[in-house]
Design brief:
Beta-Lactamase, 51% helix, elongated
C-alpha cells in the first residue's frame, strides 16, 4: 500500500463512527484491544464483559450437560450389573428375553420394548415382545444393522410401525440398538424428550453384547444336544 493510500487514525475514527455496530459484529476484535477503564471506553468494556459472561454461561451449560450424562451413565451401569446378575440365572433364551424386556420396560419407563430378530431364532417367535423377520427387513433397517450405531430420537411413523407394530401411535421417542448377527433392540417411550442424540451409549452397547452372547450360547447348546 502506498503512503497516499495508508489509513491514519482519523480515517479509522471516521469509519468506526459510520459503523457503530462493528464490534458487535466482530466481538473477537475486542479481545485484542487494550482498553483503559475510563468513561469514554466504558461501552466497549461493557461489550467485552457481556461477551465473557455469555461464554461463561455456555461453558457452565456444557459442564452441566456432561455431568448429567456422566450421572446417567453411572446409574445405567449399576442397572446393567443388576440386570446381568439376574438374567444369568435364566435357563433358556426365551426366559432370558422375557425377563430382560420386563426389566428394561421398568428401568427406562418405556411404553414398549421389542426385540427384532433375524432368521435363525424361530424358537423365540412365540414371545410377545419378539418380532422375527424371516422375509427380510426394510432398507433403512438393514442400513442400521450394517452401520451398527445406536440411534436415539424421534422417528417417522413408517419406521415406528415396523419397530413397534401395535404401539407405534404411543411412541414419542426411541432408542434403537443394533445387535451384530442377531437383530435390533427397540425401546420406545411416550415422551418425545426421553431419548435424544446427546444420551450416552455405553450401557446400551454392553446390553446389546449381553443379548448377543446369551442367544449365541443358547444356539451353541442346541447344536451340542443335536
Amino acid at each position: 500500500m502506498s503512503d497516499a493510500n495508508k489509513l491514519n487514525e482519523d480515517d479509522v475514527i471516521e469509519w468506526l463512527a459510520s459503523n457503530p455496530d462493528f464490534f458487535e459484529r466482530h466481538p473477537e476484535v475486542l479481545e485484542q484491544l487494550q482498553l483503559p477503564h475510563e468513561t469514554d471506553a466504558s461501552s466497549l468494556i461493557e461489550v467485552q464483559v457481556s461477551r465473557l459472561r455469555r461464554e461463561n454461561h455456555q461453558l457452565h451449560a456444557q459442564l452441566d450437560t456432561l455431568a448429567g450424562i456422566a450421572g446417567e451413565n453411572e446409574r445405567l451401569m449399576q442397572r446393567l450389573h443388576q440386570l446381568t446378575l439376574e438374567v444369568m440365572t435364566t435357563r433358556t433364551a426365551g426366559e432370558f428375553i422375557e425377563r430382560l424386556i420386563d426389566r428394561l420396560a421398568g428401568d427406562f419407563d418405556a411404553r414398549s420394548v421389542r426385540l427384532h430378530l433375524l432368521e435363525g431364532h424361530e424358537d423365540l417367535d412365540k414371545i410377545a415382545a419378539v418380532t422375527l423377520h424371516e422375509s427380510g427387513v426394510p432398507e433403512w433397517f438393514e442400513n442400521l444393522l450394517e452401520q451398527g450405531n445406536i440411534e436415539f430420537g424421534r422417528f417417522t411413523r413408517a419406521k415406528l410401525e415396523v419397530l413397534f407394530p401395535s404401539r407405534h401411535e404411543d411412541i414419542g421417542s426411541a432408542a434403537l440398538v443394533p445387535i451384530n448377527g442377531v437383530g435390533l433392540l427397540a425401546i420406545g417411550s411416550e415422551s418425545a424428550e426421553r431419548f435424544h442424540p446427546n444420551m450416552g451409549t455405553l450401557f446400551l452397547e454392553l446390553l446389546g453384547t449381553t443379548i448377543r452372547h446369551r442367544l449365541e450360547q443358547d444356539r451353541g447348546d442346541e447344536r451340542k444336544r443335536a
